[in-house]
């Protein structure tokens, strides 16, 4: 079977029903999707903490500033785990889903709260409850902006105004099972 970290929760559960090893599979799912706040895992922090603002080709003219982020291969992680933007500025956040596995559907939900595990969990679980018909974006007070869900090969974007107060704000994928490891920080200066 493929690495459990490379399959979505839905695909994983479908495989469990076919194989019939629900007890063993549930433990693997908890291990694959739980824990792992921030750094750690199997990749170096140097490559995963690449700044999206350096990789985005931002515009400096009169239009919205553009920030582009990507998934880290077929993992439930962002390649760019932080980006820096000025306060009270209109930006276009672009998510290019460069994953190749059909199960790696993602979105980017930007929060108006600091990047804390409790908030990531609350918003992530609320996203699951919101469901696919709402692009897994909850009606939650911590949500500042969100892209639609993107399938591999698709690009989605959202334009919004950054908070007027400088600080660190979290962003997270709210596709089911992804919130625990697919997180980042928007730094507002």
UniProtKB/TrEMBL annotation:
<keyword id="KW-0186">Copper</keyword>
<dbReference type="Pfam" id="PF00127">
    <property type="entry name" value="Copper-bind"/>
</dbReference>
<dbReference type="InterPro" id="IPR006311">
    <property type="entry name" value="TAT_signal"/>
</dbReference>
<dbReference type="GO" id="GO:0005507">
    <property type="term" value="F:copper ion binding"/>
</dbReference>
<feature type="compositionally biased region" description="Polar residues">
    <location>
        <begin position="65"/>
        <end position="75"/>
    </location>
</feature>
<dbReference type="InterPro" id="IPR008972">
    <property type="entry name" value="Cupredoxin"/>
</dbReference>
<dbReference type="InterPro" id="IPR050845">
    <property type="entry name" value="Cu-binding_ET"/>
</dbReference>
<dbReference type="GO" id="GO:0009055">
    <property type="term" value="F:electron transfer activity"/>
</dbReference>
<feature type="compositionally biased region" description="Gly residues">
    <location>
        <begin position="33"/>
        <end position="44"/>
    </location>
</feature>
<dbReference type="InterPro" id="IPR028871">
    <property type="entry name" value="BlueCu_1_BS"/>
</dbReference>
<dbReference type="InterPro" id="IPR000923">
    <property type="entry name" value="BlueCu_1"/>
</dbReference>
<feature type="compositionally biased region" description="Low complexity">
    <location>
        <begin position="45"/>
        <end position="58"/>
    </location>
</feature>
<keyword id="KW-0249">Electron transport</keyword>
<feature type="region of interest" description="Disordered">
    <location>
        <begin position="32"/>
        <end position="76"/>
    </location>
</feature>
<keyword id="KW-0479">Metal-binding</keyword>
<protein>
    <submittedName>
        <fullName>Azurin</fullName>
    </submittedName>
</protein>
<keyword id="KW-0813">Transport</keyword>
<feature type="domain" description="Blue (type 1) copper">
    <location>
        <begin position="67"/>
        <end position="188"/>
    </location>
</feature>
């Amino acid at each position: 079977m493929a690495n459990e970290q490379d399959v979505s929760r839905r695909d994983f559960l479908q495989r469990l029903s076919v194989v019939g090893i629900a007890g063993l599979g549930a433990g693997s799912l908890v291990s694959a999707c739980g824990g792992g706040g921030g750094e750690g895992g199997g990749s170096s922090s140097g490559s995963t903490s690449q700044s999206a603002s350096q990789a985005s080709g931002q515009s400096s003219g009169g239009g919205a500033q553009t920030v582009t982020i990507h998934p880290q291969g077929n993992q439930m992680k962002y390649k760019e785990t932080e980006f820096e933007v000025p306060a009270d500025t209109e930006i276009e956040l672009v998510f290019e889903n460069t994953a190749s596995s059909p199960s790696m559907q993602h979105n980017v939900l930007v929060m108006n709260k600091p990047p804390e595990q409790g908030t990531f969990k609350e918003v992530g679980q609320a996203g699951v409850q919101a469901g696919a018909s709402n692009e897994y974006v909850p009606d939650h007070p911590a949500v500042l902006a969100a892209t639609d869900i993107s399938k591999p090969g698709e690009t989605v974007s959202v334009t919004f105004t950054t908070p007027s107060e400088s600080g660190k704000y979290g962003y997270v994928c709210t596709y089911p099972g992804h919130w625990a490891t697919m997180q980042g920080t928007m730094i507002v200066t």
